[in-house]
Every structure is written in structure tokens, then in C-alpha cells.
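User: Could you write out the 3D structure of this protein bound to pyridoxal-5'-phosphate? I've included everything you need below.
Assistant: Certainly. Input first, then the structure.
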Amino acid sequence: MTAIPLSAPDITDAEIEAVTRVLRTPHLSLGPELHAFEEAFASYHSVEDAVAVSSGTAGLHLALLTLGIGAGDEVIVPSFAFVAVANAVVQAGATPVFAEIDPVTLNLDSVAIERAITPRTRAVIIVHTFGVPAQMDALLTLARQRGLAVIEDTCEAIGARFGDAGQARLTGTFGDLAVFGFYPNKQMTTGEGGAVLARDPAHADRIRSLRNQGRRPGGDWLDHAENGYNYRLSEIACALGRVQLSRLDEMLSLRSRAAARYVEMLSEIPGLELPPLTLPQRVISWFVYVVRLPAAVNRDRVQAALHALGIGTGRYFPPIHLQPAFRAARQEAEISLPLSESVAHRALALPFFNRIEPAQQSAVADALRETVAAELG
Ligand SMILES: Cc1ncc(COP(=O)(O)O)c(C=O)c1O
């Protein structure tokens, strides 16, 4: 059997030609592709402006700085998430405060957020985990009542929608700021890259300045209004991103179909919990396909068995508060996130990408069925 990777980018001749075209020009950074990509990205989301940055993590960092969040401030984040969410808060000089998730959507739970609020809380980072939109109506109401800024982390959820039929809006258009990421395992990729949507044009200006060494937009190359970063996105990446974005809806529908096929193939496996295919008020943007193994099954052994058959899997995600990098944080004694821990302990991401073939999914399902049966004896 040929190997089945966990994820794979979907690059066509159109992307290769677009990148090659850039390489034949003298503009490899801060050129026309950047402007065109930002315009197309804003237009896809029906907003005024978008700022491209070098990664999702860079976008989160700049979103926090732009809100003036720093030393002494707390930011509520999920622990069941990719570590960048908490790293960005630390990079901004603030403290991540981990809150519990909803058992169905696996997104931050509004009651848990409320409990985590202290006089130091300035913002909440709402991650649309695995492409499933968070309960944005309740979360926005809570944030408004408690005076918290909302940063949407849309890195896993480009093209998802939340809201009642006819009024649903794209994720990334709800928060004060929204951050996207384009790593190669994402629904669309720029190799490395990210983007930020800002409701306030002043925030967008500030992010443009901070991504470019603190230069004022339109200012001289060697005039720096403040300390900034090199979080620019190259012309090559932007050209790739433009083509990917033009194909996004087609790619998302391939992913939805692959998710539906997994449901058919996996639903008979005893004790295996599948992610919901549909949820009220939501259009899911399928980022990954994460099942929950029966509690009695040893995930490491399942992963090893699938690996031996050439099948890639992932532990999405180990809780951040249990990572060595965060364990020593002052909160340890107070942190109790049993749901995050139990979901994380059982979660297994299966191979999932635009062009995954039914035969490959079937091979994954067969291998998983046999391995789980062997585990359960
Ligand atoms: C929820 C979430 N936030 C942030 C990031 C960070 O993005 P990047 O890898 O582009 O820095 C990722 C994924 O990579 C992510 O899944």
C-alpha cells in the first residue's frame, strides 16, 4: 500500500505558474501581489481591508499588540488548541488563562469564559477549532457585557459560517480582529503565511506598520515610528495565496465530501466517536478529521499500528496547559480542565486532504477497525 499522509497541500499548475511569474519580476516582497492578495482576501470576506502577515502566530501576536495588550494583562484562551494561541499571548508579555471547551463543538464555552474572567482580563481568543464555528452570538454578548476584546482565531476555519439560515456570516467577520493561517496543512496555503482582518481601520494601519519594522505606511524605508517586526509575506507566497483563494470554495467542497465519506466508512466501528457532520447555525470548513477513540483503547498503539501500515495520524491537540512550556505557569494549581484533557487523550486525526481518494479512506477505515478491535480484545 502506498503511504497515506495526514495532510497534503493541493497545488495545481495554476499555482506553479503564478509563483513562476513572480520569480520573473523584480518584485519579491512588498509588491503588487501583496496588494492583490490583500484585496482578494478582504473581498472574499466582504470587508474593507485585510493585512497579510508571515504566519498565523505573527497575526495573533500583532492582533494582541494592536489592542494594547501586554504585561499585567490576561487573555482567555482554550487549552485544547494549537500552542500558538498561548505562545502569542506570552510573546505579547501577557498571561494566557486557559478555559474549558464545549463538548460538542470543542470551542471555548461561554460559561467557562465567564468563570475565568478577572479584573485583569482584557481579551478572549476564540478559536474555531477544527473549522467548526464557535457560538459567536453568545460569546460576543458576553464579551460586550464584560468589556473584553474579541480576537477570532480563524486559522483552522477559513470559509466557515455561523448564524441562522440566510443570515450566516463567515468566521473572521465577528471579532474586533480575526487571524488566519496558511500553513500547508490548512484548507488553503501560502507555504507559510497568515492574514488579519481588523474592524477598526486604525488597527489595520498599526498591524501594517508593526509587520514592517514599525514603519509608517507610506513613510520612508528608514523611518521607524515604533519598534516593529519583520512579519511580511513575500510576493511568492501572496501569488500562491491568490490562486488558492480563488479555488477555496471548490477545495472546501472536496473536503466536505471527504468528511461525509468518512462518516459512512467509520460509523460502524464500536465506541468510535465521530465529529458531527452538521451542526445547527453552522457551515463547517473541514480542516482536519478528528475521531475520538474508545476510552479503553491505547492511542499510542493505534498510531503505531497505523504508522506501520503507512497511514499518517496526529494527536490533535495535546492540552497546552500540560505542555512543559506552560506547566510551570502560575495557574497550574488552579487549572482544572477535565473535558479538554479527556478529549485530547482520545483524539486522533486521520488522513484528510482535498484529494484524498475513497480507496485511501477505505484503507484507513479498515486499518482503524482492525486496530481498535484488537485493542478491545
Ligand atoms: C488555531 C491555530 N492558531 C494559530 C495557528 C498558527 O498558525 P501558523 O502556523 O501559521 O503560525 C494555527 C496553526 O498552525 C492554528 O491551528
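The first strand starts at residue 51 and ends at 53.
User: Perfect, thank you.
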